[in-house]
Amino acid sequence: MQWKGRRGSNNVEDRRSSTARVGGSGGGIGVNLIMMIASKFGIKGVVVAIIGVVILWGLGVVDPSQLLQGGGSTSAPSGPVVESAEEKELYEFVSVVLAGTEEVWTEEFARHGLKYVPPKLIVYRGVVQTACGGGSAAMGPFYCPGDEKVYIDLKFYDELAKTFRAPGDFAQAYVIAHEIGHHVQKLLGTSAKVSAMRGRPDYNQYSVRLELQADYLAGVWANHS
Q1: Which residue, 85, 100, 133, 215, has fewest beta-carbon neighbours within 10 Å?
Q2: How far is CA 80 from CA 15, 16, 18, 223, in A?
């Protein structure tokens, strides 16, 4: 990707020096299990595992939010941000990618007589508090519809390259575009429609489709960018 020298977004918030506490009893079992599956079976194994969790969620057997949260009470680093040259470049990179999604979706919404309201992208380290509860780096990048913000710990990109074997600028950008896709779903009311189906026999199918559609929306960004 040719991204250097392009405009960065004004909607990036740096919380890497903030202190946050996250409590829970889940122990991060689900995330650790997924990481283990990824190391042994690759991305296909992860996809199968995620679909399995969605099915169990629909049956009321598991609560994904509990699986994702780490156990005990942990705190994020505090004090001034100290970053390596590599981390500084990643921070600039996500800002440029976010700006690109803003341009694409502002234009696409306008074509349909709608106004696109861009989300904030929060860069943090370790753990973070959100309107959806506590988040941690082990969860990977995620979107919180409660505050309409995307959260990312830049160390995730190490996992993306080493564990998931998906290095490179495009793979890194696509992850952000996928989460922005969830924001688009929120703005268009798609997420609310799927959420209202909870308890129906076909709810699991639509939960999976919601994720696939977020991938499609990331593809829309890729096509226009």
Answers
A1: 85
A2: 10, 8, 9, 38
Query: Using CA of residue 70, residue 179, residue 151, residue 207, what is the dihedral sign?
Result: negative
DSSP alpha helix (H) spans, the chain = 29-58, 64-68, 85-111, 156-162, 169-188, 190-195, 203-224
With 60 as the cut, is the pLDDT of residue 173 above it? yes
DSSP calls for 78-120? -SS----HHHHHHHHHHHHHHHHHHHHHHHHHHHTT----PPE
Read off the DSSP letter of residue 9: P
- Please give the share of the chain, as a percent, with pLDDT higher than 90: 52
Residues in the chain: 225
Query: Pick the residue with more confidence: 160 or 47?
Result: 160
**What is the β-pairing status of strands 12-14 and 120-124?**
parallel
How far out from the chain centre does Cα 140 lie? 6
pLDDT of 109 reads: 98
Query: Using 50, 70 and 90 to split pLDDT, how confident is the model at 111?
Result: very high
DSSP designation for 139: G
The structure tokens listed for 68 are 């994702």
